[in-house]
Write a structure and sequence with these properties.
single chain, mainly alpha
């Protein structure tokens, strides 16, 4: 109430945010802090030129959202609050520290389907791509932006096809740069999967994107989630074009099929990995030439193993 009574006074908003921040470590205060997120975001919007207030507000939001995620509470932001966050994002486009924090906030928020859809309606995709191009060197920003891109791209009502198509080269550049960083590679692979699901790739994208995803699998064999999402992304590519299927079979760095078999054996207890692999094989056998090659590589043997491992799935 103190903050809402004096929106126009920056010092009041700053003191209010600082005072709220003093409750963060008290777990019993969490339900009350959760009701303050919109007040914090509106304070940031009202005093958008004050970078100090933006940083303090963002730090507090991160604390609250981290606790919310730990407790399984999704933050469903309405459209006006989503547009407030984007407004602050656009006002400080060059401040790397602030953007890193705000992109993390956006990632946490976008875990809610409602919030992801509201961010999409507010026009976040061009902003994400612009940030990725400018801060490709910042792994935290790349990780967060790709995660938000995934959430926004898979939201149901998607009318941003042309904008999403422009995300393909940027997301590929992130994956190429961070192939050896499993955390960022996983996020970028998920974003590429969402873009492939949306049919955003062109004929010239299928082969290089398939090769890039295979490289991500090669470099991060221990990461089950990356293996799963990589296989799902490849399946979406193969559904679109036989070129992608042939790129998997004929990858110059070694057979993609052998790679996928090896990675299944590493994660044979993970139903998600097995399911993604089966989905990929199901897409590949739609092409006669590819199916003959899979037979020669004894893929039936592996599929029988999976059937024994998961008889009730």
């Amino acid at each position: 109430e103190f903050m809402q009574a004096s929106w126009d006074i920056e010092e009041v908003q700053a003191k209010g945010i600082q005072h709220l921040a003093s409750f963060v470590k008290d777990k019993s205060a969490f339900p009350y802090l959760l009701t303050c997120t919109e007040v914090i975001i509106l304070a940031m919007k009202t005093h958008i030129n004050s970078l100090d207030l933006q940083l303090e507000g963002c730090t507090l939001l991160l604390e609250i959202l981290s606790q919310a995620l730990e407790q399984g509470v999704a933050m469903a932001l309405d459209e006006s609050v989503a547009s407030c966050l984007l407004h602050t994002l656009r006002k400080h486009p060059e401040n790397e520290e602030f953007l890193s924090m705000l992109c993390t906030v956006l990632m946490m928020v976008s875990a809610s389907e409602v919030a992801a859809e509201n961010l999409r309606k507010a026009g976040i995709i061009p902003d994400l791509l612009s940030i990725l191009r400018r801060f490709l060197h910042n792994d935290k920003i790349c990780f967060s932006c790709c995660a938000v891109l995934w959430s926004v791209a898979v939201s149901e009502d998607n009318a941003d096809q042309a904008v999403l198509e422009s995300a393909v080269p940027v997301t590929s550049a992130v994956l190429q740069k961070y192939l050896q960083d499993g955390v960022v590679a996983e996020s970028a692979s998920s974003a590429l999967w969402a873009l492939a699901l949306r049919g955003c790739l062109t004929d010239s994208d299928y082969e290089p994107t398939a090769a890039l995803l295979l490289d991500a699998l090669r470099m991060n064999p221990q990461r089950a989630e990356l293996v799963k999402n990589g296989c799902l992304a490849l399946a979406s590519l193969v559904r679109l074009s036989e070129t992608a299927a042939l790129a998997i079979l004929l990858d110059p760095k070694g057979s993609g099929v052998e790679l996928i078999k090896d990675e299944y054996h590493l994660h044979f207890k993970e139903p998600g990995v097995a399911e993604a692999l089966c989905l990929l094989m199901n897409e590949m056998v739609q092409y006669d030439e590819v199916m003959l090659d899979l037979r020669s590589q004894k893929m039936e043997k592996l599929l029988s193993e999976i059937k024994l491992q998961f008889p009730f799935s």
